[in-house]
Amino acid sequence: MITEGCVVEGEVSRSVVFSGVEIGEGSLISESVIMPGAVIGAGCKVYRTIIGENAVLEPGVMLGSPDGTEIGVVGSDEKIGRNHSLQEVQQP
Amino acid sequence: MINKAMGVVNLIHETDELESLTATRCPATVPFGARYRLIDFILSSMVNSGISKVAVFAHTKYRSLMDHLGSGRPWDLHTRQSGLFVLPPSSDQIHELSRGDLYHFYQHRDYFQRCKLEYVVVTRSHMVCNVDLDAVIDYHESQNADITVICKKQADLLGGKTRKVELGEGGRVKDMQDHFGNMDSDVHSMEIYVMKKDLLMDLVQTSLAQGQDHLVRHAILSRIDRLRIFGYLYEGYLGVVNTVEAYYRTSMDLLRPEAWRELFFRPGPIFTKTKDEPPTRYLEGAKTGNSLIANGCKIEGTVINSVLFRGVHVGKGAVIRNSIVMQNGVIGDGTQLDRVILDKESQVEPHRDIRGTAGLPFVAGKRKTI
């Protein structure tokens, strides 16, 4: 599901994309939720991840894996660089 | 932000070669850009520039206009004072509909006289643009102009028809001709005129008294030597949508990301009547590329280089290329469309193959079944 106001230059499958999201060229988004205003750089691979509002993924970031069971979360307004590895979300 | 101007969207005798797209509506409400109507662009430019009093001169076939504008809420024009006024022809004789626009200005002179704002911005609805009128009024004042007309220097208008303008030294307008004139100039009038309200009222009364009844053709063009008329060169995106060819080619032009960004975001956003539709669903087998797709669609086929309005259903295995499908269109399974414009609520039966050409796209009228 993709709502109005998005720019998608990559590929999206089985995902929910909120308004104003930009997805760069050659990126692949799979089984993920992308909240409003997030920017995904070119050539990113995102599997089974929830990306918060206005978060920025720099080009080439890889998150999650196609056959993984864990769900990654990127917080709102976070900026994820290429060498970032996701930390497990701590249950309170 | 200024608030010293009022806006007029003049729909009287607009150049209209949109054929079946304007069979049931006026050019102002022709759907454009996946979720907008043509009039949205100039209305949004006005309110983004701080204009809070806008009159729309409705003329013929204005049912869809009334429906679209409503109280003016999408443009924040639903205020207690000023706000949006739709001024229909106030005539009891049918032949008066054919009279020029000055006559309508005259009939509604009370509206202008009651208004205390200094300037009037007179516009048309078929100019797809996003213009900062505040800057134009600053230019108007700095040139000490009587009238400022917004112009655009552009070699190819994609089939749109405009008045051509010849600019002299310092931006002074030397000559202006209707689109069929011989003048060779790549400066086009965007038909947006800024002038003092008192000057407009004076032009209306004087010209009518001289037996003339067109604002631009008579009142302004005949005074090019006497009045200080300046051209303001607009730098942003312009589409002139008054022919079917221009409608098609300008829509396709919006698929360029640079054009899209320039038109929809700079200097301000474009507003339209809100419809709360769910997000578009892309089901198994959906493939899309280089397209503008509005909310509420259901896509099970292939959509490439196309514009889909709200609520369009693309059936399984259907292939849509280089086409425009307006609101609630239903494209049957396995149908192929290429260079086609489908008006609202059209239906195409399964396994059809419809093709137009770039200069002459196939156009289906509202609620047709193919």
UniProtKB/TrEMBL annotation, chain B:
<dbReference type="InterPro" id="IPR029044">
    <property type="entry name" value="Nucleotide-diphossugar_trans"/>
</dbReference>
<feature type="domain" description="Glucose-1-phosphate adenylyltransferase/Bifunctional protein GlmU-like C-terminal hexapeptide">
    <location>
        <begin position="287"/>
        <end position="354"/>
    </location>
</feature>
<dbReference type="InterPro" id="IPR005835">
    <property type="entry name" value="NTP_transferase_dom"/>
</dbReference>
<dbReference type="InterPro" id="IPR011832">
    <property type="entry name" value="GlgDAde_trans"/>
</dbReference>
<dbReference type="Pfam" id="PF24894">
    <property type="entry name" value="Hexapep_GlmU"/>
</dbReference>
<keyword id="KW-0548">Nucleotidyltransferase</keyword>
<keyword id="KW-0808">Transferase</keyword>
<dbReference type="GO" id="GO:0008878">
    <property type="term" value="F:glucose-1-phosphate adenylyltransferase activity"/>
</dbReference>
<protein>
    <submittedName>
        <fullName>Glycogen biosynthesis protein GlgD, glucose-1-phosphate adenylyltransferase family</fullName>
    </submittedName>
</protein>
<dbReference type="InterPro" id="IPR011831">
    <property type="entry name" value="ADP-Glc_PPase"/>
</dbReference>
<dbReference type="InterPro" id="IPR011004">
    <property type="entry name" value="Trimer_LpxA-like_sf"/>
</dbReference>
<keyword id="KW-0320">Glycogen biosynthesis</keyword>
<dbReference type="InterPro" id="IPR056818">
    <property type="entry name" value="GlmU/GlgC-like_hexapep"/>
</dbReference>
<dbReference type="GO" id="GO:0005978">
    <property type="term" value="P:glycogen biosynthetic process"/>
</dbReference>
<feature type="domain" description="Nucleotidyl transferase">
    <location>
        <begin position="18"/>
        <end position="205"/>
    </location>
</feature>
<dbReference type="Pfam" id="PF00483">
    <property type="entry name" value="NTP_transferase"/>
</dbReference>
<comment type="similarity">
    <text>Belongs to the bacterial/plant glucose-1-phosphate adenylyltransferase family.</text>
</comment>
